[in-house]
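Final report, section 2: Outcomes. Of the targets proposed, C-X-C motif chemokine is the one most frequently requested by collaborating groups, and we therefore present its record in full.
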Amino acid sequence: MMVATTARIKRVSTQKSTAEASTIMNTFLMLTIIGVSIVLSDALQPLGAGYNSRCVCLKLESRIIPQENLRRVEILPRGPHCKTTEVIAGLSSGKRICLNPRTPWVKKLILFIERKERVTKKV
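The predicted structure is given below as tokens.
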């Protein structure tokens, strides 16, 4: 009788240990999945062309850049990622600089680019 009771206690304690181990494993698995999801959501950029998660321009250039030195100009509109419109100029030297969109010559440049894009879309 004593042997049967001891065997039953061992069986019950083994079942409890298995259940506890299973619960611990499930908790660990859920925490791992949540952790990986957080890391990936920070690492991956949202889908969409031209989307930035923060401002690109930290330093703005106000001086006039000669037209022959400009290879390309990229305008990033303001949005949830950045409070200001960003104007990035690609120079013929290969360097990229951020232009101050509040300076008069950059405002004229933006208007010129916008008009050119409207004409191109109509054609």
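The mean pLDDT is 80.
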